[in-house]
């Protein structure tokens, strides 16, 4: 059996056979029932460890009357109370700075990172040297599965400060023996410089958010560069929906002439690549032997059957500094268990993660995700690349308006073409989402582009009213 211990202690020099599509063939392709048995054993190890090292988990599980040794099946594990983001914040407020779920001495902390949000108390991540190495090994393994190889250049085009995404991609690339280029993002003029550097370095892999990959392509074209000239083979994305949304994924694959791989769950769950597609499998595989993921009913926190929708609940099987045990994400997805083209025997999220349940709104009884609107727009010729979703959550029902940019080509054709485009958008939204939206077409480049995660939803009754009047509706 390949290395699979708790705590892990990966051999830093290990590489698989260069011809193998797998880093750890056994772990990745084993009979899923056998894997589940081993996961249960690993869960017991991690729980016993967390109980011994953290007042947070002691309190939580004592209150629930749960002991690690009682977990004999995955169904038993569903009795374990979930951990919420709020509990982590509270724990850090009471026990600053890392909270009483830190399971290693503070002196073992090798890296400090934090959440990227701008509201509320941020969460601090204290990551031990051991965990840092484990994360690097996990990510190298998953990036191998994406088709990246030692010697490849990997260009990290995401903010290298309060964002675990960039750091996770960087240390995975380093462990994989790649030429890692921590380029970053977010400074003025940096996207144009990225275009220059990409042209010089011709990386095999590029990491960013999907929104930023689209932005980068726009800027490249402004600079007279065809993004295909970068010679990228794999674009791996995390941070927001997009990499598993066919219209967006296909558009980006087309623009760059490269393969798109969707990955990423939550910063707290670093190694966050544990949900990731592979070179041959679309959507996201759940690499269950690294982080055990349950897709659960958000009301009961119990697993839903394959084929159904639920919220992911995550459990670290290899972390020792701040292990998350049943951390509830608040996202929505659906999972399936099928034969995967790459031969890995993991469950899969065929459409990735749709977004946060909180971001969902209801229009005349239909649940709508912002990502579904992006999906429709990106699939339409003549779309200018950005939009805003305006919801008025005032009365008994939410109302929806969409401001969508048309592209320069449509602009050149004149007002009739723009009007026809608006009608097409409205018809498509209504056909695909089952809801009627007020659509207002706006000039190309009306909205700022992001170098991080797109923020497109505006919750505003007054703006909704004014758009409604503008459209005469
Ligand atoms: N989120 C993250 N990755 C997503 C994806 N591939 N598809 C859909 N939604 C996704 C550091 C990694 O990028 C993970 C990350 O972004 O962590 P954060 O910053 O803590 O944000 C977590 C949230 O981003 C998730 O709950 C998803 O809603 C979204």
From TrEMBL:
Q: Keywords for this entry? A: Ligase
Q: Which residues form the signal peptide?
A: none
Where's the AMP-dependent ligase C-terminal domain?
365-461
Q: Name one Pfam family in it.
A: AMP-binding_C_2
Q: Which domain of life is it from?
A: Bacteria
| AMP-dependent synthetase/ligase domain location | 100-310
GO MF? ligase activity
This protein's name: Phenylacetate--CoA ligase
Q: Tell me the organism.
A: Marinobacter panjinensis
């Amino acid at each position: 059996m390949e290395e699979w211990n708790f705590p892990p202690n990966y051999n830093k020099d290990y590489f698989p056979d260069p011809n193998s599509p797998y880093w750890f063939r056994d772990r990745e392709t084993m009979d899923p029932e056998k894997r589940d048995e081993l996961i249960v054993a690993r869960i017991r190890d991690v729980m016993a460890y967390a109980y011994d090292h953290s007042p947070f988990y002691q309190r939580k599980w004592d209150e629930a009357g749960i002991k690690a040794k009682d977990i004999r099946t995955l169904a038993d594990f569903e009795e374990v109370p979930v951990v919420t983001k709020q509990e982590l914040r509270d724990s850090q407020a009471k026990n600053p700075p890392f909270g009483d779920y830190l399971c290693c001495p503070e002196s073992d902390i090798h890296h400090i990172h934090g959440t990227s949000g701008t509201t509320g108390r941020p969460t601090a991540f204290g990551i031990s040297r051991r965990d840092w190495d484990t994360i690097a090994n996990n990510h190298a393994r998953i990036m191998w599965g994406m088709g990246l190889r030692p010697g490849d250049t990997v260009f990290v085009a995401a903010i290298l400060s309060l964002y675990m995404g960039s750091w996770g991609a960087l240390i995975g690339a380093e462990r994989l023996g790649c030429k890692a280029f921590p380029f970053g993002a977010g400074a003025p003029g940096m996207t144009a410089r990225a275009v220059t550097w990409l042209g010089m370095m011709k990386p095999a892999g590029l990491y960013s958010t999907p929104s930023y990959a689209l932005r980068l392509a726009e800027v490249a074209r402004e600079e007279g560069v065809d993004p295909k000239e970068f010679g990228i083979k794999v674009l791996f994305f995390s941070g927001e929906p997009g990499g598993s949304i066919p219209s967006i994924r296909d558009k980006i694959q087309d623009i760059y002439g490269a393969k798109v791989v969707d990955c990423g769950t939550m910063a707290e769950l670093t190694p966050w690549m544990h949900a990731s597609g592979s070179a041959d499998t679309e959507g996201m595989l759940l690499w269950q032997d690294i982080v055990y993921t349950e897709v659960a009913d958000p009301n009961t926190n119990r697993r839903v059957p394959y084929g159904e929708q639920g919220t992911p609940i995550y459990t670290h099987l290899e972390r020792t500094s701040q292990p998350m045990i049943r951390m509830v994400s608040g996202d929505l997805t659906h999972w399936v268990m099928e034969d995967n083209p790459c031969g890995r025997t993991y469950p899969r999220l065929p459409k990735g993660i749709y977004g946060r349940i909180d971001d969902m709104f209801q229009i005349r009884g239909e649940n709508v995700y912002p990502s579904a609107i992006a999906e429709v727009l990106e699939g339409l010729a003549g779309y200018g690349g950005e939009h805003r979703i305006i919801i008025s959550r005032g009365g008994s029902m939410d109302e929806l308006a969409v401001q969508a940019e048309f592209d320069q080509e449509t602009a050149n054709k004149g007002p009739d073409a723009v009007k026809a485009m608006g009608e097409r958008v409205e018809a498509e939204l209504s056909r695909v989402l089952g809801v009627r939206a007020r659509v207002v077409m706006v000039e190309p480049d009306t909205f700022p582009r992001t170098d991080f995660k797109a923020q497109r939803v505006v919750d505003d009754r007054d703006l909704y009213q004014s758009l409604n009047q503008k459209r005469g509706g």
